[in-house]
Amino acid sequence: MPGPIVEDIQSEKEVQRAATVFGVGGLGCLLIHMRFFVLESRLLAYYKRQPQDNMVPIKTLVIDGNCRAEDRGLKTQQGLMVYVLLIYNKKDKYHRMTMAAFNIQETLIWKEKIESVIDQESLTARYIVFI
């Protein structure tokens, strides 16, 4: 299986990348599906196809100070080695997203970007509380 098509679109608020994600199959096994992730200011969304205007995402997750990006390491799925990243809200652990990439650099880039949004949000919340 070829690696994901990595595409960066830089604007003031949007970073868009293509990545693979685990989707739950019909028999309860994990399957790898190509998904398109979009990280906009505080919202992480993923789409089944390349996002276009007025397209509704499959799933969204609001990134705030309670979110965590957890590196699950190297896993074997469908005979392929992938690096897994889990993003969840620690107050609501059932609302989460799992993404995977074929190389560790892609996973680390996503983790750093999501953690920077989490840090900005928690820093803003601290200033609001102390002012």
In short:
This protein is an alpha+beta fold and about 130 residues long. The protein has one domain: Roll (PH-domain like), CATH 2.30.29.30. It is about 20% helix and about 50% strand.
Structure description:
With about 130 residues, the chain is of the alpha+beta class. It has a single domain, classed as Roll (PH-domain like), CATH 2.30.29.30. Helices cover about 20% and strands about 50% of the residues. It contains one helix and eight strands. Strands 1, 2, 3, 4, 5, 6, 7 and 8 form an eight-stranded antiparallel β-sheet that branches. The protein starts with 8 loop residues before the first strand and ends with a helix.
Features:
131 residues, PH-domain like, 1 helix, 8 strands, 21% helix, 49% strand, globular
Q: What is the string of helix and strand elements? A: EEEEEEEEH
Report how far apart the termini are.
53 Å
Q: How many H/I helical runs?
A: 1
Mass-distribution shape:
globular
CATH superfamily placement = Pleckstrin-homology domain (PH domain)/Phosphotyrosine-binding domain (PTB)
CATH topology: PH-domain like
CATH class: Mainly Beta
> Could you tell me the radius of gyration in angstroms?
15 Å
The whole-number mean of residue pLDDT values reads: 77
Major sheet details: 8 strands, antiparallel
- Strand composition percent: over 45%
From the coordinates shown, what is the CATH architecture?
Roll
